[in-house]
Amino acid sequence: MQITDVRIRKVEKEGKMKAVVSITIDEEFVVHDIKVIDGEKGLFIAMPSRKAADGEYRDIAHPINSDTRNKIQQIILEKYESEVATEEV
After folding, report:
1. What gap in Å lies between CA 77 and CA 89, rounded to an integer?
2. Which end of the chain is more exposed for a tag (fewer CB within 10 A), N or C?
3. pTM for the whole thing?
């Protein structure tokens, strides 16, 4: 699996959510609404989710294992940090 495109839409409002991201996998499959969150331990991603009837949030799409999640997170956060650094120059 290769992530062939990452599109970052920064969130201008103050708060923990910093951006909403879309990724393209193998130039064939797109996942929208991945969130970049600034948490207590730094930036991380949250996969697209919806609120269930019991009030809990459930992921709509997500990696099956932690290695894949880490790979996706690393690629997204590198792109996000690159865009933020470019804006500061």
Report:
1. 19
2. C
3. 0.90
